[in-house]
């Protein structure tokens, strides 16, 4: 899935698990963060929003409560990774055109 912003903004996509081939529905948002600091694990590097979402799907299929991801298209974060798995949507969506980086969010709609 290309990060085709703003075209993908506020759309819902069915994303297929790479292992079970089950579809998971995610709402996609451009220039968006959510639940800052409420991450599962330490995060990973992902080359695309789709790869980041696949990581969340893998966690779901292993029994972890992953409710979505925040992915940054520019890997220039000092923490060394650009894909953040979330276990909460606490605080709602944080949408801004002035982020220093270019985040995108994908939030699970149904399991």
How would you explain this protein's 3D organization?
The protein has one helix spanning 49-61, and strands at residues 11-16, 23-30, 32-34, 39-44, 68-72, 83-86, 93-95, 103-110. By secondary structure, it is mainly beta. A six-stranded antiparallel beta sheet has the order 1-2-8-5-6-4, covered by helices on one side. The protein starts with 10 loop residues before the first strand and ends with a strand. The mean pLDDT is 86. The protein is globular and about 35 Å long.
The number of E-state strands comes to: 8
The largest beta-sheet arranges its strands as 1-2-8-5-6-4
Number of helices: 1
Low-confidence stretches: none
Q: Roughly what fraction of the amino acids lie in strands?
A: 35-45%
How big is the Rg? 13 Å
SSE blueprint:
Layout (H helix, E strand, L loop, with lengths): L10 E6 L6 E8 L1 E3 L4 E6 L4 H13 L6 E5 L10 E4 L6 E3 L7 E8 L1
Antiparallel strand pairs: 1-2, 2-8, 3-7, 4-6, 5-6, 5-8
Please tag this protein with its features:
single chain, 111 residues, mainly beta, 6-stranded antiparallel β-sheet, two-stranded antiparallel ribbon, 1 helix
